[in-house]
Amino acid sequence: MKGRRVVITGLGGICGLGTNATDIWAAMRAGKCAIGEITTIDLYDLKCRIGAEIKALPDTGLQHRQTVTMDRFSHLAVIAAGEALAQAGIAPGGENAAKAGAIVGTGIFGSVTLDESYRSVFIEGKKRTNVFTVPRVMPGAAAGQVSMVHGLKGPVFGVTSACASSNHAIATAADHIRLGRADVMVGAGTDAPLAFGVLKAWEALRVLAPSACRPFSADREGLVLGEGAGAIVLESLEHAEARGATILAEFAGSGLTADAADIVAPTHEGPAAAIRACLADAGLSAADVDYINAHGTATAINDKVESAVIHAVFGDRARSVAVSSTKSMHAHCLGASGALEAIACVNAIRENCVPPTMGFNEADPDCDLDVTPNAAREREVDVAISNAFAFGGTNAVLAFKRFS
Question: What pLDDT band is residue 263 in, cutting at 50, 70 and 90?
Fold first, then answer.
């Protein structure tokens, strides 16, 4: 899509690796893993008992009257967005508030509140749920809360497309700037799936790993769930330069496709088309890409398909382009994953460092990529892309590049 150039001026995040984007990136660089036994909720009869938890939320000064209306997934989004806006130097409710908005993606949305509601009615015998149950669980609640807390009065709404939600949110936020509907947008993703009901449902799918997340490794056992949120502040180049903002990177483009095939099984054609569409939108070729932040869920089929897709798009470069899955460290945070991975992409460009794929033990001939095993690598990164391929066959790929 042609239009105004879009740059990134702020990053914010919270997940098991840290309660701010700086700490999250430092943990990624160091190859730290946030996955461990879940301790913050009752696990009852769950067989899979690991995840990537946030042990405690930081004090952001929110008042009780605000937090009482929020499910955890909204609270996490508000925290991440606040950090990103602060780094960008965007004051709440500023004079440009009408041209500043937020689009927040989520895959599971108000799971903590739903668990509490079912418990109160079916176990505790209460006659009604919490009065704020509906506004807490709405998929668009996180976007609304970000808008209210941070004074954003432009385009504000939520999107939900399972594991591609963050990337869809960021791509759509960028499009609003390109089209002139906004000057500043928060593109974000959030999810808090470490609730008993959600874990029980995922357990039924038989895709959860019992001990670790090992993307692309021959001994991978499945995915691990985590909670978190990530946010990036996008601005038109003109707006950022006019106010003297520090530009972290440029948002280069996006590619959005659908498999139109199966609710859970991915195709090769849909993801490959999304990568090609992203590169075309960004005015880049496969030869320009230095780093691919892979969807990399550590399930047997997804890693195999993604590897084949990268070969199909990148040809002879497929084995040499740097690839990694940071889900091996922060786990699969569903609707938040893409936004957390955007933090990895932007910082990979800023510091010329590719974060690792941790837990890699054994090469898989079906995943013959340079997956940056077990240790970060210093490497020139001018262009990074981030893959998100979701249940429902929805695919969203983002491209970031060094600003010049």
Answer: very high
Segment 180-209 shows an average pLDDT of 97
Options 15, 33, 163, 367, the catalytic residue: 163
Q: Which helix H or strand E contains 185, and what residues bound it?
A: strand 184-191
Going by the DSSP 8-state scheme, the letter that residue 98 receives in this structure is G
The catalytically annotated residue of 75, 239, 332, 367 is: 332
367 counts as catalytic: no
Can 332 be counted among the known catalytic residues? yes
Angle in degrees, CA 22, 199, 56, rounded to 5: 35
CATH class of residue range 6-242: alpha beta
The CATH T-level fold of domain 252-401 is Peroxisomal Thiolase; Chain A, domain 1 (3.40.47)
168: annotated active-site residue: no
Identical fold for domains 6-242 and 252-401, yes or no, is: yes
Instruction: Give the pLDDT of residue 1.
Output: 58
- Catalytic residue, candidates 168, 176, 295, 330: 295
Spans of all domains in the chain: 6-242, 252-401
pLDDT of 95 strictly over 80: no
What is 215-279 written as a DSSP string? TT-TT---B-BB-EEEEEEEEEHHHHHHTTPPP-EEEEEEEEEE--S-SSSPPSHHHHHHHHHHH
Is the Cβ–Cβ distance between 293 and 384 less than 8 Å?
yes
- The DSSP H or E segment spanning 27 is helix 21-30
- Contacts for 87 with CB less than 8 Å, ≥ 6 apart: 9, 10, 11, 12, 21, 233
